[in-house]
């Protein structure tokens, strides 16, 4: 049995049994739903979105409304959750026999759900025309949404994570972001920008939200120290992992004490309100800045800084992944779900997505500027250069891990103790390795 499948057997047994029952009756339910649709003419599908930011909600509301108004065969029931709650919400709906028809996926979700076998390949439910719109690497077998030639997600955006930094603060203390390439340089700059008397801290890790601790290790710290991902406990990488934890504990000296109670929203505000110099965010952050602090969404104030490397001779890095729509195996209205995805993921709709970079062929920076305004041009140009590849920055597709929620819970507890000085780096490593490997089986 492949390692990635083992955890399913012992994980949340009551919920998984309920999900199994739902999947078993899925075909019957689909047939019933199609029969009902023929009688009632209008099929209602549930669309579960994790887009809780203001610009995300505005996009969803606009295009769901337009879809519902442009035809009368399908009605989309738009329901909203958050990334923090998406796992529990979806599993509760599946267990109750009320699965959504269309659900958002992200880097962690698509991996877990493919491992669990609860997603439907979308190839049979959307047209080849839509699939042909995607950039080649999106539909390549190496992409995390592709398995055995089948796509399990339809991206509406491709995202990247790097450090989002206060250019003005770093330049004020003599460290232009473009010149910070190594971890030693970053630590020097963090010490220089740290000024608690002025309420300025170097950076933060969002300790009150497990998934954010997991993301911090997975997308930022682990690759910077040469690790495959945050669960790379190979014996030969032990020293790298402990050095990463050592550096995190040292960096905690320059972090705000209040972060122990911060959630994702707090981490965003800590940047927009001028508390931290470095936000662990990504290409999606333009949407948050535009809504909360448009004066900071300017290249003379904010810079995109690839994560500095601690590997001798290595390059700074940024991570890459997609976000999009998936169909559940248990969905009772797959054909209608496919039509809705076809509409929402089309380049002419997705080009207005106010975050990240387009996953579609032929979408230019001018197209994005025409849709969103000239204020996004610099942002699109900088992220576009990263996605183009080459040069002296590594764009990484970091291998995900499962089960995400359980492992992130362990990481949050241990990293909280590490940053709080309650345990040391070696003890933190031993705890993480033992507990994570026990979960993975």
What order do the helices and strands come in, and which of them pair?
Elements: H1 3-10, H2 13-24, H3 26-40, E1 43-49, H4 54-70, E2 74-80, H5 86-95, E3 102-105, H6 107-116, E4 119-120, H7 128-133, E5 146-147, E6 150-151, E7 154-166, H8 167-172, H9 183-193, E8 201-203, H10 210-224, H11 238-251, H12 264-272, E9 276-282, H13 285-292, E10 302-305, E11 317-328, H14 334-344, H15 347-350, H16 365-372, H17 377-388, E12 394-396, H18 404-419, H19 425-440
Parallel strand pairs: 1-2, 1-3, 8-9, 11-12
Antiparallel strand pairs: 3-11, 4-11, 5-6, 7-9, 7-10, 7-11
Helix pairs in contact: 2-5, 10-18, 11-19, 16-17, 18-19
CATH fold node name of the largest domain: D-Maltodextrin-Binding Protein, domain 2
| Approximate shape | globular
What do the pLDDT scores average to? 90
Helix content: 40-55%
Can you count the helices?
19
DSSP summary, beta strand count? 12
- Our measurement of the CA-to-CA distance between the termini, rounded to an integer number of angstroms, reads 11 Å
What is the CA-atom radius of gyration, in angstroms? 22 Å
Mind telling me the CATH superfamily name of the largest domain?
Answer: Periplasmic binding protein-like II
Strand count, sense and barrel status of the largest sheet are: 10 strands, mixed
Structural class assignment: alpha/beta
Structural domains: how many:
2
User: Which CATH C-level class of the largest domain is it?
Assistant: Alpha Beta
Strand content: 5-15%
Q: Do you know the CATH architecture of the largest domain?
A: 3-Layer(aba) Sandwich
Catalogue the unreliable spans: 1-18, 20-38
